[in-house]
């Protein structure tokens, strides 16, 4: 890509991001301004403006790279080997046992240090 193409792309992206910010601001301010109107109408307007803002954001270079990342993440999730119910249950029991043991150890250390400080002070 030439530097002029990069500069043109970045100028266009700046305009698109400014449009996204403007659309979100219109949604927020409009929701506040029309607070007396029905919640359904305000929600429809907010969803519509958010959808348009999202569409415009996806037209930028960062938006396209985010969409690509999301597609790759979805494909990666399909390849994950999820634990069985038994493995999940056993792991949960191990975590609970370690948490209980460490809480008892910390309680013991705290009690000992409290006793030690009390005996030094008195």
UniProtKB/TrEMBL annotation:
Task: Give the matching Pfam families.
Answer: SecE
Q: Which domain of life is it from?
A: Bacteria
Major subcellular location class = membrane
Q: Which InterPro entries match?
A: SecE_bac, SecE_sf, Translocase_SecE/Sec61-g
Q: Which UniProt keywords apply?
A: Cell membrane, Membrane, Protein transport, Translocation, Transmembrane, Transmembrane helix, Transport
Where in the cell does this protein reside?
Answer: Membrane
Q: Which Gene3D superfamilies match?
A: Preprotein translocase secy subunit
UniProt key word Disulfide bond: no
Tell me the subunit arrangement: Component of the Sec protein translocase complex. Heterotrimer consisting of SecY, SecE and SecG subunits. The heterotrimers can form oligomers, although 1 heterotrimer is thought to be able to translocate proteins. Interacts with the ribosome. Interacts with SecDF, and other proteins may be involved. Interacts with SecA.
Please give the function described in this protein's UniProt entry.
Essential subunit of the Sec protein translocation channel SecYEG. Clamps together the 2 halves of SecY. May contact the channel plug during translocation.
What NCBIfam families has UniProt attached to this entry?
PRK05740.2-4 (NF004378), secE_bact (TIGR00964)
Instruction: Give the UniProt family note.
Output: Belongs to the SecE/SEC61-gamma family.
Q: What is this protein called?
A: Protein translocase subunit SecE
Q: Which organism is it from?
A: Marinomonas sargassi
